[in-house]
Design goal:
By secondary structure, the protein is mainly beta. It is built from 2 helices and 8 strands. The protein has a 5-stranded antiparallel beta sheet, with no helix packed on it.
Amino acid sequence: CDRNVLYSFHIDNDRDQTPDFDVRVRFGRDDVGNCFVRVDGAPGAGGSQIEGPVEYVLARGDVRVFAGLRDDPFFFDLQGFQTTLMTGDLSFVNDRDFFARQNVSAIALRLPLNAVSPTGAPFDTWVTTARTGG
């Protein structure tokens, strides 16, 4: 929830390696410490900011935003792997996940395709982060 970090999602819809859209995401806290997210520049949001608490899906028009913690999607049986290495016998268990409940921070954007690329042509995306202040 560091207000001094700016996350920028760049979208180039004419393949000239220059962003046609810059979606900017920033976090902050209210007076009692609750974390909030603010999104600016999302194509399809009608030029409006999308703002609200983290851990909720926020919407403006056809744009959806989620920022918060999610369960790590990577599944791995570390114990089974180590036992397999020691014994040479396959020892994996399909419901034993070493990474269960190991959270990752995520920002997810769902943008309407016709707002990002009106012709439906391929487009490029990349993300940058920057520290913007003290």
